Amino acid sequence: MGRLFVGFAVVVFLAISGVSASATPLSDALAFWDPPQAFLCTATGNPFPSKYSPTDPYKCDDGDMTLFNGLLCAAGDSRGCNGVRLAQGSDGRWWRSPRRIGWTYPNYDVSFSPDQALGVMLYATVTRDVNAFDRWVQWMEDNRPCIIPFNGRCIQKGWLRYCSDDIPDKRCTFRPDDCTYLQATGNYLGSAQANLCDKVLDELGPIVAPFAKSAILSVPAQVLASAVANSPGFPLHLAAVELLLARTLGIKNPSLDAAGQTLATKQNQNPFFQYLAQGATPGVANQILALCPSPTNPSGNRSQWAWERDQRDQAWKDSMYWDCIFVGKMQ
Predict the structure, then answer these.
(1) Which of 220, 244, 250, 273 has CB atoms 3.0–4.6 Å from 255's, for a disulfide?
(2) How confident is the model at residue 160 (pLDDT cuts 50, 70, 90)?
(3) 209 near 196, Cβ under 8 Å?
(4) What is the pLDDT of residue 168?
C-alpha cells in the first residue's frame, strides 16, 4: 500500500509541476522545435508554416510551402494541412502558399509545379477533401492551353498543366508520373475526376492516346523507378515524397519496400529516407535527435528543409525546424 501511495504522489507532483511523466528526448525536442523556433508566416493574417527569410518584408520564404505543408499534414500536423488548404484559390487553382495566391510570372516565380502538386495530393489524401480536389482538377481541365484557335475561340485544347504562367520552362506541364499519382489520389477519394488524364488522351486522338497511356506506370513501378533513377538532392527527395504518398494511399507492394531500401542506401544520414525504409524505430529517432537543432545547437538561419538536400551539404545545420517536426511526428 505504501508503494502505491508513493507512486500516486509522484504522478500528482508531476502533473502539478507541469512535468510530463511520459516525456522522452524526442517529445522534448519536438516541444523545442515548435514555434517560435519554427517560423510561422503571418503575411495573410492566417499564420502558416514557412521558411524564414531576413530580407522579406514579412520574413517569409514560402515558395515551396505547399509541398512542405503537405508533408507536415501527412505527419499529422494540422498547421500543415491548413497551410495547403489556404493556398487554394476561390477558382480551385492551387498556389505555392497562401500568401502567393495571385503571384504569377514574370513578376514572381512560376506559380506552381509538379513538386507542389504532390503536397496537394498528400493533403487531399489525409483530409479526404474530395471537394477541394475536384475543384482543382476542374480548374486544370478548364485551363488547358489552346493548340488550335479559330476566330477568337478554341477548336482544340492541348495537354494538362498545373498552372498557366510557366512560359520560361513549361514546368507545370503534366508528365506521365503526374497522371499516375493524380489518378491514384482521385480513385482513393472516390472522385469522378480521377480519370482526367485518360479522358484528355482519348480526346487528343487514337494515335496519341495508346502511345501516351503506355508511358503511364503503376504507382509502385513509378515510385521504384524514381528511387532508382533520381540523384541525391531534391530529385531523390521527390521520390521519397512519392513513396510516402503511395503508402498514405494504402498501397502495399514489394516495389515500394524496394524503393524505401534504395532511398535509405543512397542517403544513410537522411532520417526521412530511413523512416521510409525502417518505419518508426529507436534508430531513426536517435538519428533525428543527432542531426536536428537543440537548445545548445540551434539552427543557423532556419532556411532549409534539410531532407531535400544531399546529406553531404549538412543542411540540417540551417534547419527550418519544420523539417524536424515532420520527421519527429512520424515516429
Answers:
(1) 220
(2) very high
(3) no
(4) 85
- The partner residues of 104 in beta bridges, in order of sequence, read none
Judge contact between 27 and 7, C-beta under 8 A.
no
- Residues 41 and 56: their CA atoms lie apart, in Å, by 11
CB atoms < 10 A from the CB of 282, how many? 10
Question: Which sign does the torsion angle of CA 193, 48, 127, 67 carry?
Answer: positive
Tell me which residue has cell 534508430: 283
Question: Among 144, 99, 94, which Cα is nearest to 119's?
Answer: 94
Cis-peptide, bond into residue 36, ω within 30° of zero: yes
C-alpha angle with apex 31: 25 to 272, nearest 5 degrees? 70
Mapped onto helix, strand or coil, the DSSP state of residue 34 is: coil
What cell numbers appear for 124 in the block? 487531399
User: Dihedral of CA 57/46/84/311: which sign?
Assistant: positive
3 state SS of 98: coil
Could you tell me the three cell numbers for 109? 516565380
144-152 mean pLDDT: 91
What is the number of residues in the chain?
A: 331
Question: pTM of the prediction?
Answer: 0.92
